[in-house]
Design brief:
It contains 4 helices and 7 strands; from the N terminus they run E-H-H-E-E-E-H-E-H-E-E. It has 158 residues and is α+β, with helices and mostly antiparallel strands. It has a single domain, classed as Aminopeptidase, CATH 3.40.630.
């Protein structure tokens, strides 16, 4: 059973928000998979041309974030994370739609993403019109050494 949609405010992030982003990642990403980035990795990425991120706020609490980049007429969702206590309230959908709108403003025609095959976010991406276009066998390695496939999804930006 899912909770009622949250009222959420999406704001564009700045380098000053990296501590907030990394706190969300530490809370949201399962440590078994080692997917959370370090603050220096996050800062290094947002310093690159075409990269932006947004933070979702629910009340006065940061609930999630999304990080993306655009190059030429294509964009890529690099990370999307929602705090576990805030999931299934429409926050991931709001962030994803915000990234799609931002990518459109950057003249991107398509948004790509890659996700671990057993990640519950696959349902969100499919619900928002993303289609699986590829697979990388045994791409992700969990901290226990177990391998997981990576699935690539894309969606045209209308």
């Amino acid at each position: 059973m899912s909770s009622a949609p949250q009222i959420v405010e999406i704001v564009h992030g700045t380098p000053a928000d990296i501590a907030t982003v990394n706190a969300i990642m530490a809370d949201a990403f399962d440590p078994r998979f080692g997917e959370a980035w370090t603050p220096s990795q996050s800062l290094g990425m947002i310093a690159l041309p075409g990269v932006w991120f947004s933070i979702a706020w629910s009340g006065n609490r940061p609930a999630g974030f999304a990080l993306a980049r655009a190059i030429a007429d294509e964009a890529e969702l690099l990370l999307l994370a929602i705090r576990p206590a805030m999931r299934r309230r429409g926050i991931g959908t709001a962030l994803l739609r915000s990234i799609l709108a931002d990518a459109r403003e950057r003249d991107a025609d398509i948004l790509h993403l890659e996700v671990r095959a057993n990640n519950e976010a696959v349902r969100l991406y499919r619900n928002e019109g993303f289609e699986k276009i590829g697979e990388r066998r045994d791409y992700y390695r969990g901290k226990d050494g177990k391998l997981f496939d990576a699935h690539t999804f894309s969606r045209k930006i209308d």
